Structures are given as C-alpha cells and as structure tokens.
Amino acid sequence: MSNNQSITVIITYAQKNKVYNIEIDPSTKVQELINEFYEMLHPSGQEKIVLRYQGTQLNPNRTFEEQGVRKGTQIDLLVETQGGL
Predict the structure, then answer these.
(1) Cα–Cα dist 68/79, whole Å
(2) pLDDT tens digit string along 10-66?
(3) Total domains present in the chain
(4) In-domain check, residue 1
(5) What region holds the Ubiquitin-like domain (predicted)?
(6) Do 51 and 30 contact (CB within 8 A), yes or no?
(7) Helix, strand or coil, per DSSP, at residue 76
(8) Residue 2 resides in a domain
(9) pTM of the model
(10) CA of 71: how far to CAs of 14, 33, 74, in Å?
(11) Alpha-carbon distance 78 to 81, whole Å?
(12) Does residue 22 belong to any structural domain of this protein?
C-alpha cells in the first residue's frame, strides 16, 4: 500500500535564476513533472527539459521515490538544446 504523502522538493532553474518549491507525490513519474514544466516554460521544439538530482539526470520513466528523492530535496532543472548546432 503506497502512502500518498506529498513531499515538497526545491527545483532550481539556474539558467533563469528561479527557484520553485513544488509539492509532489513521491510515486509520481519524473516525466509528469517535466510535462508540467513544459506547460509553464514553453521551451522551443529544439529544447528539452532535464531534471538532475545530485548531478545525475533523473530517469523520466521512474518515480521520484525510486530515485531517492525525499522531502526538501534540491533538484536542478536544465533546458538543453537537442541536436547540437
């Protein structure tokens, strides 16, 4: 039985000097939060949003819980251009 305890994580978007405190369910897939950021940030078609925790890119297809994300965890948000030049 999963406990649906929301946790607050700190998302740091250094490229724009923004910090977001976001409440998530630890059993949420990382991709779901990335999708929310797409709606908020509207990156261009060539850009993709990446979330990193302790220097490692979070796997979008796994949950936050599976990847050790806990309450108060700081996650870095990066917008990367795909395909180089």
Answers:
(1) 22
(2) 999 999 999 999 999 999 999 999 999 999 999 888 899 999 999 999 999 999 999
(3) 1
(4) no
(5) 7-84
(6) yes
(7) strand
(8) no
(9) 0.87
(10) 20, 15, 9
(11) 10
(12) yes
